[in-house]
Amino acid sequence: MGGGRGRPRAALGSLGRSDPSLKPGGSAFEATGSRHHGRNDRDRATGGGTHVIEQPELREGETLLTTIRHGLTELNRDKRVGGRIDVPLIDEGRRQAREAAARFDGTPFDVAISSPLRRAIETATIVTGLPEDALVIDELCTERSFGAMEGLRPVEVRERYPEVRYLRIGHIGYSLNPPGGEPFPELHERAKRFLARTLERFGGRRILVFSHQNFMQQLHGAIRGLDPWTSLEYDILNCELNQFHLGPGGELLGHRVVQLVPDAAKHPSF
Questions:
Q1: 70 has catalytic annotation
Q2: Which of 70, 188, 212, 220 is catalytic?
Q3: pLDDT digits (tens, 9 = 90+) for 119-129
Q4: Are 102 and 270 in contact (CB under 8 A)?
Q5: What is the fold, at CATH topology level, of the domain defined by 57-264?
């Protein structure tokens, strides 16, 4: 699945001009309901082969911003706090990314942005077929810093840092005060800065962003106009795709979720 691609895509060379060969295709775009913890209304990939992801027809000034979370890492598998630890994908994560690539193959985009962390970059190159030097690497979309908690399992965090407080939503406990880490209000502001800068640089195009769960929760929340805490109600699985249709002023016109890897839920967030 990581070999030849089904249709040419626009790389960085297309920025700053319209490429008529890459018009959004498909039928009318439908906004879907938000997917909370515990709900199962994702659009799941069913079966193999190329399947172009449906996109809305963009009118003047409109933007299509699509996010994809990275594939599985050893930290995800072992239920250890990841944060800024820079680990690659494991074999299963690469398999997920290849499966996502097959599902995504032929879907047009104009620019691909990635977190600087290896797991996001590796996922981006597999899914898009672009070399690393064709990606836009943006520090603003790196994962949340968990400070001293990084690399630890939840039980180890509780033993070493009993002062850490949690907000439990569904099956996930979100740490509110990680020692030396990034509080959610700060992460939310960073996501808003990333969104503003991305729309300033690439607005009016089809943008892909490869990043991480906690950051993307806040980015999605910023797009929706939510606060940092409500943003946490929307869990994101490995290689999950979220597509946001934005108006000229950044207003949300439509949203859909596509789970590119049907079995991603066997490694739930924690």
A1: yes
A2: 70
A3: 999 999 999 99
A4: no
A5: Rossmann fold (3.40.50)
